[in-house]
Amino acid sequence: MLAKISIAPRVLALSLMLLGSAQAAGPVVISQVYGGGGNSGATLRHDFIELFNRSNAPVDLTGWSVQYTSSGGGVWQATTLNGVLQPGQYWLVQQAAGAGGSQDLPTPDSIGTINMSSTSGKVALVNTTALLACSSNCLPNSQVVDFVGFGAASSAEGAAAAALSNSSAALRRANGCTDTDNNAADFAAGTPAPRNRSTAVVNCANGGGDNGGGGDNGGGDNGGATARIRDIQGRAHISPLNGKPVSNVPGVVTMVVNNGFFMQDPQPDNDAATSEGIFVFTSSAPTVQLGDAVTVTGKVAEFRAGGPTGTNNLTTTQLTGVTVKRVSSGNPLPAAMVIGSGGRIPPSKAIYAGPAGDIESVGTFNPAVNGIDFWESLEGMRVQLNNAVASSPSNKFGEVVLLGDGGAYASTRTPRGGVIIAADDFNPERLMAQNGTVKVPTVNVGDRFGQATGVINYAFGNYKLQLSELSPLISGNLQQEVTRKQAADELAIASFNVENLSPNDSQNKFDRLANQVVRNLQAPDIVGLMEIQDNNGATNDSVVDATDTYNLLIEAIVRAGGPRYQFRSINPADDQDGGQPGGNIRQGFLFNPARVAFVDRAGGSATAAVSVVKQADGVALSFSPGRISPSDSSFDASRKPLVGEFRFNGQKVFVVANHLNSKGGDQGLYGRNQPPVRSSEVQRNQQTTLVAGFVKSLLAADPQANLVVLGDMNDFEFSDALGKLKQAGLHDLVELLPAGERYTYVFEGNSQALDHIMVSHSLAKQAEYDVVHTNSEFSDQTSDHDPEVARLKLSPKVVDISAQLSISQSGLSLNRATGQYQGTVTLTAKQAINAPIAVALQALPAGVTLRNANGQLGGVPYVKVFQNLNAGQSVAVPVLFVNPTNARIGFNTVVYSGQL
Prior knowledge:
The protein is mainly beta. The chain has five domains: 14-206, Immunoglobulin-like (Sandwich), CATH 2.60.40; 225-328, CATH 2.40.50.140; 337-474, no CATH class; 490-793, Endonuclease/exonuclease/phosphatase (Deoxyribonuclease I, Chain A, 4-Layer Sandwich), CATH 3.60.10; 799-897, Immunoglobulin-like. 8% of the residues lie in helices and 34% in strands. The radius of gyration is 39 Å and the shape is elongated. Residues 15-152 form the LTD domain.
């Protein structure tokens, strides 16, 4: 053999052998070839080519390619490579799929579409993307880094490797370390064992471990030192052995899943900060069973779920590229760590209280103080909750949040079984249970389990108890709440997010919502609705009108025994208000015309901004209904506040219905960045600044104005956003409730107030408030929000509206049959006036009485008029007098509005 010539950093050489041409050994070799993917009898769905860096230096593969042609062919196909291959790493190139097979490859490092032969062919690793053009005598070639001919190949390094089949691959010996420049000597046919860059690193200095041609799923002696699980987990969120090979790690299998298993060291240390459990990733269904004592050889890896969108997720420590040896079977499982009384009690306040930033690199690890560290110290371990009470309902993903010991170590509990958040307490004592080898049943808040046992895992931004044992459910018999009926002089105003309501929803949803309005809310006078969609819901077309949606709900309310509400709303511009694409979500008002009147003023539109104006009878809206700052960028792709002017008991009431920017996009409580970045607050604070500006303008024009600001604010009573509205002069009525009752929504087991009714000073002292819990705590929800209602005591208010009328009096005539004097007072409206109105006659002579008076105001008799007057319209009001002394009758006419 000729001497080998190295050219750094990509090593190439020329050699000749008696049996044929050879390509001198380089740092990167073809370590496995398989062309039977998806064929009859194959397990794997794809063909593949595997590369291996047998050197002690990284190699940049960018601009290289793997190429294939048939055994006698000269037309090559190429798959381009891109990336760096570290020493001892494998690189998996996925190729074409067949129609059969039952298993996918491990995550490939490159993907091609070459359909390879299952028996014979030629494969080359080339340091360019230019296609080879040879059929035979392909070597030597300065562009070829490595070359494999197999079966009846017309070219090879030395002699061709053995012919393959649908169930066999060509595997380079010693896990890829062997390279004698002879394909026949270097490769053996064996079971395909695809390996990628996540597979345990192989150290060729230690011989690599001959796989004997049979394949060992990336196993063999990988040069790792023996370690126990606690050494791998360490006292941190990232393993101190991350990326390192380890061998003969002992443990007992505690749970088996479809791509691996959890195991736990049965001989724990006394350090609570180091976990004794770990996940072993096998990529396909493992062959171990519960209770097997095993030793595992592989590579330590930190897996971060979620791909490009999961960058804030914590990692889970795993063993990958593993060889598993069963030592014994049927062993008892390690005892589950009790969380709570008799075991480890989790922190009850701080999820994280250390230095700000990425806790995987800058954080201090303190399980005694930080909830995020407490649960990390149990990652992969069996734990047990006793007397576990549900602080959330179960969801469609098979999850429910539990509190151990009946919630004894939780902070502020709700009367119905949940747990309340506070500005400095998001309840780290909660633990989300999820489907494991046993399933989560249907659960409401307050339901209990005598015992819940499983393994601590981390997924979708939360530590989770993957269940293996669950006692029978003990029902808490949770019932929907019913509020009291408003009195005659109480204006009842409700806020209700009806969760993307549209005609596409079932009649059952409309009927259930109607029942909540009529029965649970006791038919409020005004209902501010959020998440009303247009007439065809999420169909993404030009339809924006929602009349059908409103009418379906109104008719359902009538059938449920409620009043026939009317509605007011403004259609948004198409696809400009966020929410479900095509749904054209918006707010709207329902009102009972038998109890309240809506003041309609033309001009409101999707883009016109409402303002406060002064009129003869006081402050008013420029148009009603109207939208607050709809063109401001703060409301881009978000719902615009809707404001309307109402009259009740002769008093004006202004109501603003809101659905502020959602909390979507905020970082989770258990993410790597602490404290979590709540990016949604930026837009929400901008929005509340604009709403607060409207509030200030109205209250500046009339400090005693009756103003209600309600809706799904998507923020808490202690938030900066709500603080801006309080500073503008509003009172948040949820703060009238005890701390444990301040919630309208349950998220990940945390009860919290996202919906609010806020009122001006004139209403605050006469307000009664109630959150009516009908949805958020139940697995069977009509909406994900609970409705809320405020009852505002507004006694009739009498207002002098004489200036809004032209008033004339007729002469009086005597009816000799009755002895009464009769005449008329004619009223002509200068502007629209709503009934009832009262015509009071002042300064009547002594002894003269108004015979047809309906009552008195301050000792002055009046006659009521029940007719609405449009501008320019007149009404003649008859007056009858008793005048026993025949005195000359004269009087002054004053007209009032209001209930008398």
